[in-house]
Design brief:
single chain; mainly alpha; 43% helix; globular
């Protein structure tokens, strides 16, 4: 899966957080990703397709560039599974960052993905 990110404005991020996240996005990380060369549809399922989302997360688990992918996903705020988190989960991670959780902790593969609040739109 190779997808270019433009890093559109994510209103939940301060300039400082945006810079810290961008510093964690390694150059050419997509080429070293566990998903490289896999079918892209696996990582961009319909919102209701939880089975496909679970399959994507399994690929992410052992990915050597999970932190870069998660940072890119948070910055880009795009649909899909990025760094083992869907869009709503990444938005919940932005909330954690806004409340002071360190960027390194949010990007750590061992960090539990928060459950988004009910009613949060994708």
């Amino acid at each position: 899966m190779t997808r270019q990110l433009a890093f559109p404005f994510n209103a939940g991020l301060t300039d400082q957080l945006r810079a810290e996240l961008a510093a964690h996005v390694e150059p050419d990380w997509q080429h070293r990703a566990a998903c490289a060369g896999r079918e892209g549809d696996l990582f961009f399922p319909d919102d209701a397709d939880t089975a496909t989302e679970r399959k994507a997360r399994r690929v992410c688990r052992g990915c050597p560039v999970l932190a870069s992918c998660r940072a890119a996903g948070i910055l880009g705020d795009e649909h899909g599974v990025w760094g083992a988190a869907n869009r709503n989960e990444r938005r919940a991670l932005v909330d954690q960052l806004a409340y002071g959780l360190p960027v390194d902790q949010v990007l750590d593969p061992a960090h539990p993905i928060p459950t988004p609040a009910k009613g949060v739109a994708a």
